[in-house]
Amino acid sequence: MSKQTLKLHSTTFTIHTLEVTAVIPPELFNQSMFVVAKTKDELSIVCPSEFAIDSLDAEHDWRALEVIGPLGFSLTGIMANISGVLAKANISIFAISTYDTDYVLVKQQRINDAMKALKKDGYQLLNDTKLA
């Protein structure tokens, strides 16, 4: 399988956890990028760090690497390969999948290490609109 191209987003994100019964702030839906995940046990929100949410706990300073898509549902191993490269480099991730593509969130202090590891493994990386 050929290596995908990843794009580093300039936005810094925060991952929040809230009470499962919490009301999602309506202003969240005006953000340029956000993810809401709810199960019977938890409510998680990923959003730009500048958007304040009253949450139970939060993990700050995440950067997003977008796997340039759209990716077909028949493709396999994309996240496994990327996360494997980063795991070998001892870099923790937070993975997000959408209908069209995947995102790998990496802590800001490790983003350069992550990009180096991915480049070394043959991935192409874009930084906003130019090659990183």
UniProtKB/TrEMBL annotation:
Species annotation: Pseudoalteromonas prydzensis
Name of this protein: ACT domain-containing protein
Pfam families: ACT_7 (PF13840)
Coiled-coil annotated spans: none
PANTHER family the UniProt entry points to: CASTOR ACT DOMAIN-CONTAINING PROTEIN, CHROMOSOME 1, WHOLE GENOME SHOTGUN SEQUENCE
SUPFAM superfamilies: ACT-like (SSF55021)
Domain of life: Bacteria
Residue ranges annotated for the CASTOR ACT domain, each copy included: 58-119
